[in-house]
Amino acid sequence: MLRLIIHNVGPILDADIRLKKVNVFIGPQSSGKSTIAKIISFCSWLEKNKHELEESYLFARSVMDRMVSYHRMEGYLQDDSRIFYQGDNIAFAYNWDENDTIPLEFDLNSCNPSGFVKKEVFFFKTERLTNPKVLYIPAERNFVSVVPNLQKYDDSKDSLQNFIVDWFEAKRSYRKDVVLDLIDLGMKYYFENGEDFIQMEDGKSIRLRNASSGLQSVTPLLVVADYLTKGLYEKERPFSVEEQDVLNRLLHNLAVKSQPAAESADQIRRLQGFLQGKVYSHTQFVIEEPEQNLFPEEQYKLMEHLVGIINRGKQHRLTISTHSPYIINFLNVLLRRPADTASYLSSESLNVFLVSGGRLTDMMMHNRERTKWAVDTSVLNAAMDNIAEEFEGLV
């Protein structure tokens, strides 16, 4: 079972999470929701990058430095910060004292710890079980809808740049004759002559950059999510996972033995990354504020759609950080739907946590009378009750 432990990282004081297919975090601003989401994204990335990790420790580079720069987490790590992650392929422990037992729950063959930078210990399974496509969808995603010449935006250590790359790859699949329905909004998306278009219900089209803020926010999310749950997996994939590992080793040996010039070395590194992405077992989505600029009814439709597409025959996974009580309430609807419904969620596949005061409160509860699990929304409803009481007191 996947597990994540966080101690004193940014606003998070202590968290111990058994990660599931869908993980939802709600809480006030600056409570640490995004901190947890970013660490989940980073640890999922570790699952697929054994060769990059080996290359990093050869040059004594900390992988945690990558997380800090990629997710803009400068100042989040303290002297006593600790992270432990146990996933499908690896376990990773950051800053665990030599006298403390790393909380492994199953046998892993460890690599030589002397080869890694201090404070970072990895344990690799003998057989790699998964190769996830990891996509962090930031709250700033509407940036890609309105800013021209995005091809010139280049910051390889930035999560937004990574999203831009996936956005450009995904949207090429949707043309005027192959449009993408935008959930139940009655609108469609397509890409033509280097421009993003929204086709309205009356058949007329407008440029995405001229559309409403809600469309500018939700369209990139829907396009990339659809492509990375369906389109990407329908493409021809000529390399098996085993073949991919062999090719990566060959390229690594070539880089070490030939000592290529800087330009060639960069090409080898990028080719390794290309091969690494040839075979994906599933997509790990991490989405900040999916409700951004959306009316509650559209928030419902979006959540229904996201759960439906991650159920598309692959073991896709979804992590969400949100401020929206509507999204939390709608999860109870999905829990009650018949199991053969496309957007059905089981209690075994869902985590919901309230993040507050640096700690997590599990919001999943068991209703003994109905022998069903549900999300406890009483904390969220209490805030509305307080507002109602204040209002009544003013009348």
Explain what this protein looks like in three dimensions.
By secondary structure, this protein is an alpha+beta fold. It has a domain at 1-131 and 289-395: Rossmann fold, CATH 3.40.50. Helix content is 37%, strand content 24%. It has eleven helices and 18 strands. The chain has helices at 33-47, 50-58, 63-70, 143-146, 159-171, 213-234, 241-258, 262-276, 296-310, 325-336, 378-394; strands at residues 3-9, 12-18, 22-26, 77-86, 90-94, 109-110, 120-124, 132-137, 180-181, 188-192, 195-199, 205-207, 282-288, 317-322, 350-356, 359-362, 364-367, 372-375. The strands form four sheets. Strands 2-1-4-5-7-6 form a six-stranded antiparallel sheet, with helices on one face. Strand 4 (77-86) and strand 5 (90-94) form a beta hairpin. Helix 5 (159-171) crosses helix 6, helix 6 packs parallel to helix 9 and helix 7 packs antiparallel against helix 8 (262-276). The longest helix has 22 residues, at 213-234. The model has no long low-confidence stretch (mean pLDDT 82).
Set down the secondary structure blueprint.
Layout: E1 3-9, E2 12-18, E3 22-26, H1 33-47, H2 50-58, H3 63-70, E4 77-86, E5 90-94, E6 109-110, E7 120-124, E8 132-137, H4 143-146, H5 159-171, E9 180-181, E10 188-192, E11 195-199, E12 205-207, H6 213-234, H7 241-258, H8 262-276, E13 282-288, H9 296-310, E14 317-322, H10 325-336, E15 350-356, E16 359-362, E17 364-367, E18 372-375, H11 378-394
Parallel strand pairs: 3-14, 3-15, 8-13, 13-14
Antiparallel strand pairs: 1-2, 1-4, 4-5, 5-7, 6-7, 9-10, 10-11, 11-12, 15-16, 17-18
